[in-house]
């Protein structure tokens, strides 16, 4: 995949790529964090990114679904560009995803899953499990930023505007922890996340 450098420049220009010591929602540690909310706060950027990602994901799609919180804005923009309905699940007290607010999925629906950032694919797999439990089928996975190792989730290639190779570490192997660098947890999922041993 040839990466269009304009998207990297856009992320960097708004301070979306941050440096420090971060606890990711996967439980792993990293010295760089991508905060896509910084680029999506400008509706013009959200529209541009959504249209380009929609172009890459166009096909037999009935609905776009994104996980909260980070994926909601870009998922909506992709759905808007595709002219398809958009939904998002919510986490219930046990930490699992559930459709609420009157949202429903019909058996056989073809769902495109859109995220802001994919690292380990854990959230995407959780969302797939929810959707498949309703009888839907995944037809594509997309993200603004793919920082995963294999660039796929359960066999689905990740279509992304930007691919970043940023190492992540288990707590026990983290060089930043070893140096005593204070850690930040910038993601929206704070409950139920344990640091990987």
Tags for this entry?
197 residues; alpha/beta; Rossmann fold; 6-stranded mixed beta sheet; 3-stranded antiparallel beta sheet; 11 strands; globular; disordered C terminus
Structure described in brief:
The chain is of the alpha/beta class. It has six helices and eleven strands.
Structural class: alpha/beta
Average pLDDT, to the nearest integer? 90
Number of domains: 1
Tell me the CATH topology. Rossmann fold
CATH architecture: 3-Layer(aba) Sandwich
Number of helices: 6
Describe the largest sheet.
6 strands, mixed
Strands of the widest sheet, in order across it, are 4-3-7-8-10-9
Series of secondary-structure elements, N-terminal to C-terminal:
HEEHHEHEEEEHEEEEH
Strand content: 25-35%
Compute the separation of the termini in Å.
34 Å
Assign the CATH class.
Answer: Alpha Beta
Helix content: 25-40%
Low-pLDDT parts are 191-197
Q: Given the C-alpha coordinates, what overall shape results?
A: globular
Oligomer: single chain
Radius of gyration: 16 Å
Based on DSSP secondary structure assignment, what is the total number of beta strands?
Answer: 11
Spell out the blueprint of helices and strands.
Elements: H1 5-13, E1 17-23, E2 29-34, H2 37-40, H3 43-57, E3 63-65, H4 71-82, E4 86-87, E5 90-91, E6 97-98, E7 110-118, H5 122-133, E8 137-146, E9 152-153, E10 156-163, E11 168-169, H6 175-178
Helix pairs in contact: 3-4
Q: Can you put this structure into words, describing what you see?
A:
- With 197 residues, this protein is of the alpha/beta class.
- It has a single domain, classed as 3-Layer(aba) Sandwich (Rossmann fold).
- Helices cover 28% and strands 27% of the residues.
- The chain has helices at residues 5-13, 37-40, 43-57, 71-82, 122-133, 175-178; strands at residues 17-23, 29-34, 63-65, 86-87, 90-91, 97-98, 110-118, 137-146, 152-153, 156-163, 168-169.
- The strands form 3 sheets. The protein has a 6-stranded mixed β-sheet. Strands 1-2-11 form a 3-stranded antiparallel β-sheet.
- The protein is globular, with a radius of gyration of 16 Å.
């Amino acid at each position: 995949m040839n990466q269009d450098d304009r998207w990297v420049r856009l992320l960097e220009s708004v301070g979306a790529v941050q440096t420090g010591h971060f606890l990711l929602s996967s439980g792993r540690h990293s010295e760089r964090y991508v905060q896509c909310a910084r680029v999506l706060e400008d509706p013009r950027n959200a529209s541009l990114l959504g249209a380009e990602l929609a172009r890459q994901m166009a096909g037999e799609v009935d609905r776009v679904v994104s996980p909260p919180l980070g994926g909601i804005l870009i998922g909506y923009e992709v759905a808007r560009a595709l002219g398809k309905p958009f939904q998002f699940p919510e986490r219930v007290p046990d930490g699992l995803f559930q459709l609420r607010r009157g949202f429903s999925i019909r058996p056989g629906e073809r769902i495109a899953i859109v995220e802001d950032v994919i690292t380990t694919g854990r959230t995407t797999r959780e969302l797939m499990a929810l959707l498949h439990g309703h009888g839907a089928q995944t037809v594509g996975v997309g993200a603004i930023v793919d920082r995963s190792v294999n660039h796929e989730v359960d066999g689905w290639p990740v279509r992304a505007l930007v691919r970043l190779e940023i190492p992540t570490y288990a707590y026990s192997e983290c060089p930043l922890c070893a140096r005593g660098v204070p850690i930040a947890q910038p993601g929206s999922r704070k409950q139920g996340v344990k640091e990987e041993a």
